[in-house]
Amino acid sequence: MKERILITGYNGELGSKALKELVSIGKSIIALDINNPKEKIHSVKYIKDSITNNELINSIFNDYHITEVYHFAALLSQTASQNPKLAFEINEKASKNLIDCSYTFGIKNNCKTRFFFPSSIAVYGPRKIENASEQDIIKPTTIYGNNKLIIEQYGSKLHEESLFKKIGLDFRSIRFPGVISYDTVPSGGTTDYAPQMINCAKKGEKFECKLSPNTKLPFIGIDKTISSIIDIMNLEIIESKLRVFNVQEASFSVEQLSDFLVGKFPSFKIKFNEDKNFQSVADTWPSSLNCEKAKKFWNFSSNISLEEFLNSIINK
Ligand code: AKB
Question: Which end of the chain has a smaller Cβ tally under 10 Å, C or N?
């Protein structure tokens, strides 16, 4: 049977970059998304359908030997709060089905299906903490945070069961902070204020900010995001019961970012218009993350000052 990698949500910010990177290292890919591809890569098999179509997911696993899954299809925090039922269907139910198929077909194929799940700092809460470690208080207040936590736990449980059988599922996950790209401007998330603000400053447009100036959150650039995903998935084995790891490159307040941007683009104007739907979420997410476990178990590295980090984003 043909070996393939399955990517869901390949049109999104992370999915589109991960797809290109995986193609460039010679992987054979089946790419699933609810929308048509924005650009087509000749070697990729594209499927336009919903991740909630269980029959389709099952048939993909039946027709191909899926060795790895990169599961990016999801609703982000703000969109999930506005559509709780859809968030449950996509973020939770469909994710569980995909994990179940990966586990069951791993057993059928007498191997372990490697599964990547992008989790989020949204699993933390309800209080804002500094330098959050993976085991710190995990009581998310949002639907999105709860969806992410349930899937972290579900994947980790089936990973544990697979350890005894030596076949089934090899679950790996990263708790991402806000991701900042240089060529796409995301929406639907709470941390998206940062890439949106950077985009407005570069274009000379005024920005209306829904978070207060002192709100501090952790961030990572898109290049490090993608290299982290490739690195964690390329390791033959991760010798840890912990399956979910923190990563960050920088941590800064809204004011630190706006000051930096005004310094670079002196005519940039920002208006603060706090929105409680955004502020109440950001107030429960950590201001920074402890990444020691990622450094220890899969060689995550990040050694960059805030100035260097922000310059690397705006100069691309
Ligand atoms: C969001 O803000 O919803 C995401 C996230 C941190 O998970 N960017």
Answer: N
